[in-house]
Amino acid sequence: MSKILIISPEKCTGCRTCELACSFNKTNEFNPKHAAVSVINYDEAAISVPMMCMQCEDPSCMKVCPVSAIRANELGAVVIDSDKCIGCKMCISACPIGNITYNSKEKKLIKCDLCDGNPMCAEFCPSGAIEFKEGNAIFLNKKKKIAEKFKELFGEVE
Q1: Of 22, 94, 143, 148, which has the fewest CB atoms closer than 10 Å, so is most exposed?
Q2: Could you write out the DSSP letters of every residue in the chain?
Q3: What CA–CA distance (Å, rounded) separates 17 from 36?
Q4: What backbone torsions phi and psi does residue 79 show, to the nearest 5 degrees?
Q5: Predicted pLDDT of residue 157
Q6: Sign of CA dihedral 92, 44, 150, 14
Q7: What pLDDT is stored for residue 151 in this prediction?
Q8: 46: exposed, middle or buried (C-beta count within 10 Å: 0-12, 13-18, 19+)?
Q9: What is the pLDDT along the chain (158 residues), one digit of tens a residue?
Q10: Biggest alpha carbon distance in the chain?
Q11: Taking Cα atoms as reference points, which of 80, 77, 79 lies closest to residue 135?
Q12: How far is CA 55 from CA 5, 36, 71, in A?
């Protein structure tokens, strides 16, 4: 079984180190707007949640891409082929988690690609809220429960 990102919102301190590590790895600059992870703060509940691509088994973003620029790579990560991508942004609308963004400066889409098997968000997360672990039944079940909870809270994109 391949490795997967495991998110534990209860451990997140809201430091946003994951955003900085991700953006630096992707663009060589510390700019959270260019990160494939976003920390969402829920002030009323006093929690922070790192939001990122859940690497869906049946990705909506892949289904709507008119030029087949989105595919699963050998690591199981759902990635965007920038050579094929036409920048239509339909994948942004289709993502039920809402974590594909557009870098208008470079005119390209930003989506988690698991950093070729070494996700910087997990490597630099000081609290362990983001971990990259071997996928087993327990972790996969947790991942599915978190995804279902977010779909329930934010509404599923059909």
Answers
A1: 148
A2: --EEEEE-GGG--S--HHHHHHHHHHHSS--GGG-SEEEEEETTTTEEEEEE----SS-HHHHH-TT--EEE-TTS-EEE-TTT-----HHHHH-SS---EEETTTTEEE---GGGG--HHHHH-TTSSEEEEE--HHHHHHHHHHHHHHHHHH----
A3: 12
A4: -125, 160
A5: 43
A6: positive
A7: 62
A8: exposed
A9: 578 888 888 899 999 999 999 999 988 999 999 999 999 998 888 889 898 888 888 899 999 999 999 999 988 899 999 999 999 999 999 998 888 988 888 888 999 999 999 999 999 999 999 999 887 666 666 666 766 666 666 554 44
A10: 43
A11: 77
A12: 9, 12, 11
**CATH number belonging to domain 3-153:** 3.30.70.20
Residue 86 to residue 142: CA distance in whole angstroms? 35
Rounded Cα distance between 135 and 4, Å, is 6
